[in-house]
Design brief:
Layout (H helix, E strand, L loop, with lengths): L4 H4 L2 E7 L11 E5 L28 H8 L3 E6 L29 H8 L5 E6 L5 H6 L3 E4 L19 E6 L2 H11 L24 E5 H4 L5 H16 L3 E5 L4 H27 L7 H11 L3 H21 L5 E5 L16 E4 L2 E4 H6 L3 H5 L4 E8 L5 E7 L5 H14 L13
Parallel strand pairs: 2-3, 2-4, 7-8, 7-9
Antiparallel strand pairs: 1-3, 4-6, 5-6, 5-12, 9-13, 10-11, 12-13
């Protein structure tokens, strides 16, 4: 950290919380996103609430308790997007895989720290791609678990009904180990306390769903080629491909964040400022308030119904296939040009907003609340990572990780960590 962090800006502060000795994971060094409470240390909040939680935290988040009990040591807090930064970005943090590309957000500091080898693994949160986007940008592994699989107690997340906490690691085996450590119900988080569906039996050969909506969407040619190579490699190993369709996928990827995301995050933000009357509401938060207050209740209800219908369709689809395999990002990892502002990028010859490029293939799985993981499989012609995403039915994280591990092997992984230049 002393040697490379000045070039990276991934670490907010160092921590010394030593895990139990002679435990299964003794010696593992973990970084946590700065929205995760660590007793005795300050906690930031997602950028626009910067400063709301600056006091030393009175207790550990449940996931931190579980890591310490398992022997892991927490060594650092990782950066969050600052006030006013565009969606899907941690603009101040450098990408150790490609310094000219974005790190993604909002767990960009966690992904960059792992990619640079500053920690063995990191904790991120994901309510619209915030584990998978930075993991894909930084060429590392990320797992967004089923909503309710991991306790979110004492972790700031503003879209709380679809938010998950999960691992960011340099390889799939570590992601599996860290997930098994932090998962499980806890009475402090009601989302974890509901009934669990019985695990489905999966026998090889696995059935891999190929989504028509992704086949027909605009993709960068090199991303499409990497996807085709991945599917061909799995087919050569005996996997069976099945064409499937989710007609509402595009609609939910637009309306979910625009309506439910704004409504829920505004409610949480209002509660936070109510608890901190000494804080002035920034101008950009007032703009979010205005957008939320302008949403008709009927539109919120219709979007919630859309989310429920999409979730049911996803569940039905997983009666036909075991997993989906698709690109994590539809285009190359975007350049870090003008990172504090929203800009347009070119994907396959078509112009779209950078935030849309980063989110459109990842956030549908938040709204269906199913597990989704990402791992790097190739580099584009300019050296940036290209990653694939594996999506499975509710509480099928082990299955998702099994398929990710197979892809990792077939694509020549896992990737080594890459410290950035130290100047």
């Amino acid at each position: 950290v002393a040697q490379w962090e000045p070039a990276l800006n991934a670490i907010v502060g160092l921590i010394e919380r030593r895990g139990a000795t002679d435990a299964p994971s003794t010696g593992s060094l973990i970084a946590v996103k700065d929205s995760v409470a660590v007793a005795g240390f300050p906690r930031g909040t997602l950028g626009f609430l910067e400063g709301a939680m600056v006091d030393a935290q009175p207790r550990d988040a449940v996931v931190v308790e579980r890591m310490l009990e398992d022997g892991m040591s927490v060594i650092a807090r990782t950066s969050l997007p600052p006030k006013g930064s565009p969606g899907g970005m941690t603009p101040q943090t450098q990408n150790p895989r490609a310094l000219d590309r974005v790190t993604g957000g909002s767990s960009g500091g966690s992904a960059a720290a792992v990619a640079a080898g500053l920690a063995h693994a990191a904790i991120g949160t994901d309510s619209g791609g915030s584990i998978r986007i930075p993991a894909a940008c930084c060429g590392v592994v990320g797992l967004n678990p089923t909503v309710g699989a991991v306790p979110g107690t004492d972790i700031n997340s503003f879209v709380y009904s679809i938010a998950s906490t999960g691992p960011i690691t340099s390889n799939v085996a570590d992601a599996r180990h860290l997930f098994r450590c932090i998962k499980g119900s806890h009475p402090s988080d009601p989302l974890t306390m509901g009934p669990r569906p019985s695990p489905r039996s999966h026998t090889e050969p696995y059935r891999v769903g190929i989504l028509r909506e992704v086949v027909e969407t605009n993709l960068d040619p090199e991303v499409r080629q990497a996807w085709t190579r991945t599917i061909d490699a799995l087919t050569a190993e005996g996997f069976i491909t099945v064409d499937v369709s989710l007609p509402d996928m595009v609609h939910v990827s637009i309306e979910g964040p625009r309506v439910l995301g704004i409504a829920e995050s505004t409610a949480r933000i209002e509660d936070t400022f109510a608890a901190h009357p000494e804080m002035r509401v920034p101008d950009n938060i007032e703009q979010i308030y205005e957008r939320a207050r302008a949403l008709p209740s009927t539109e919120v209800a219709r979007t919630y119904a859309l989310s429920q219908r999409f979730s049911a369709d996803v569940n039905t689809m997983f009666g036909e296939v075991d997993v989906l395999v698709l690109p994590t990002l539809p285009g190359r990892v975007p350049a870090a040009d003008d990172p504090f502002n929203e800009v347009d990028v070119i994907v396959g010859g078509v112009t779209e907003q950078r935030v849309r490029l980063l989110t459109r293939l990842v956030n549908p799985w938040n709204f269906s609340r199913v597990p989704a993981g990402t791992l790097p499989v190739a580099r584009d012609s300019d050296g940036g990572p290209i990653s694939m995403q594996v999506v499975g039915p509710w509480f099928s994280e082990d299955l998702v990780l099994d398929v990710m591990e197979k892809i990792e092997t077939l694509s020549g992984g896992p990737w080594d960590t890459t410290p950035p230049p130290s100047d």
